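Q: Here's a chain of 233 amino acids. Please give me its 3D structure as tokens.
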Amino acid sequence: FTTMPKAVTNLASASVRQSISRKNDITMMPIGVPKVAYRVPGSQGADWVDIYNRLYRERIIFLGSEIDDELANQVIGVMLYLDSEDSDKPIYLYINSPGGSVISGLAIYDCMQHVQSEVVTINLGLAASMASFILAAGSKGKRLALPSSRVMIHQPAGGARGQAEDIKVEARQIMRIRDNLVKMYSMMTGQTTDQITKDLDRDNYLSAADAVEYGLIDRVLDTKQEDDTQMSG
């Protein structure tokens, strides 16, 4: 027999080892947004859709990250679509957010007031800063929270940089926005503007029960199934 060169033998051995390694590899499901099967009425088979799109079909919106322009536009788009589809049914807005941009949050607030559908707000986890404002902006009697949830309210913060005149303009805008937020918090909670101003001065955390007493929400969901959450049978 002809002796194979050592380099060729090593190459063949490496190829065999790689082949065995590939056979032993286990393909793991990629981490990402969970998907569920959904069959469009009238179609033969089901398609895989991400869980949030599936929830949209049940008129459920999940506000679960920092509020910015992109998130606000997505929430507004879904709300407008659901309202145009059936304005007699409520929209359920679940909130677990650290807050974010005041302007983006006000855009969501304005849309909530614009649509004809009732907007049921439900706090789970934390509704902080601008998220607490959106929570309190739900339809009266339909602002809810789960027992372990928390709410945090505080005044808007600014990070102006640049020339002195630009900083002065930014400061005036922040003060104007703060005054408007104080008035709207007062209307939504029933607290006086002086009390709201005092409470917004620093980070102010409230339990679900405290949020009810303060007027930010209407009641705490203390049973496993509630008709107002759209999650009961």
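Q: Can you summarize the key feature?
A: The helical segments are 6-24, 51-56, 69-85, 102-114, 130-136, 164-189, 193-199, 208-214.
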